[in-house]
Amino acid sequence: MSELNTNNRALKWFEARLPVVSFLDHSLGTKYPAPKNLSYMWNFGSLAGIVLVIMIISGLFLAMNYTAHTDYAFNSVERIMRDVNYGWLLRYIHMNGASFFFIVVYIHIFRGLYYGSYKPPREVLWWMGLVILLLMMATAFMGYVLPWGQMSFWGATVITNLFSAFPIVGDDIVTLLWGGFSVDNPTLNRFFALHFVLPFAIVGVVILHIWALHEAKSNNPLGIDMKGPNDAIPFHPYYTVKDLFGLGVFLIFFAYFVFWAPNYMGHPDNYIPADPLVTPAHIVPEWYFLPFYAILRAVPDKLGGVLLMFASILVLAALPWLDTSKVRSAVFRPIYKWFFWLFFADCILLGYIGAMPAEEPYVLIGQFATAYYFLHLIVLLPLIGWFEKPKPLPESISAAVSKKSKGGHGPVPANAPAQEKA
């Protein structure tokens, strides 16, 4: 790592002992090379990191005023909303922040699927992303229980009971999660403690995720590696400015939901205090769990449904080997591109089915949608890679960018690749 170029003697003295600024400069600054053709679809990684920070800070202040006890939890949330200064704002930021966190991460994942960001040498980077997703799901589920409303209580009861499907150890796992023989005060205490700790575990995995990214370097819309200095530009200021613009657009949408539609993505039953004697007419998880909930319900057998639900995430870890094509980006894969959008539509359909009652025709549609989900990943993806004929790849990122910016006309810069000059 090179010495920081500065005339500030105090900063140079500090850097000689703890090179924080030079480390950031090499990791996210002028000395970190990034592909020169990254689109706004690459904003969602940094947006996810920013939302994570927002969630941790707002959650920290909420925890100062929350009481993790079944007799007081619901009322403590009402007190936060009514009596704590700007408590309503903190809670609405945290509530909607969870939904926007999943929106940003899901877009980030589908962008990776479209441009082949899971392919070598980025397998570990992809795995770290899936670990983050699993930790997010666990954190969000436990956080949804904390308000101790009707949907909190019954959602916790239904989801934790799923582990009882595992033979031999299932009942012991459920008892461990509950801290007793039903969802009660020990359960709430455990979920509150884990909900507070898990975000810091997410931060740790995010650091590993970024580390893996910097080792393998960023993918790009063309899906080809940087081949020289002409293919790269410094991350700062070019992409920091682009990320700031994306953040501004994101905050407009986020502010709309926080201030004008704070409960749009929530469930009205959660404003009713938890009652173990009254079962809600329709128990549904939060919207970001609905596709997996539909997969769970697609199998009549309880154990089979649980295994299939977990398999729907774990199968994504095998994508670097299931996708047999040597070409990363869907830009050059005409058949894969069509099947990608079909897979995307199937995931949306699963989300819709997950919100519907467990009755016909929704059960049958959910079974077909679940079957296609696994068919696409396990069968179609390898076959497409074997039989598809991709379009020819450009010689380099720089050649493709120069050609696009000039529309194929006009003089070519002297430092352009030989093929482009020809």
UniProtKB/TrEMBL annotation:
This protein's UniProt keywords: Electron transport, Heme, Iron, Membrane, Metal-binding, Respiratory chain, Transmembrane, Transmembrane helix, Transport
Question: Subcellular location, in the record's words?
Answer: Membrane
Q: Which protein is depicted?
A: Cytochrome b
A GO-annotated cellular component: respiratory chain complex III
The role this protein plays is: Component of the ubiquinol-cytochrome c reductase complex (complex III or cytochrome b-c1 complex), which is a respiratory chain that generates an electrochemical potential coupled to ATP synthesis.
- Please report the record's description of how this protein sits within the membrane: Multi-pass membrane protein
Where are the stretches annotated Disordered?
400-422
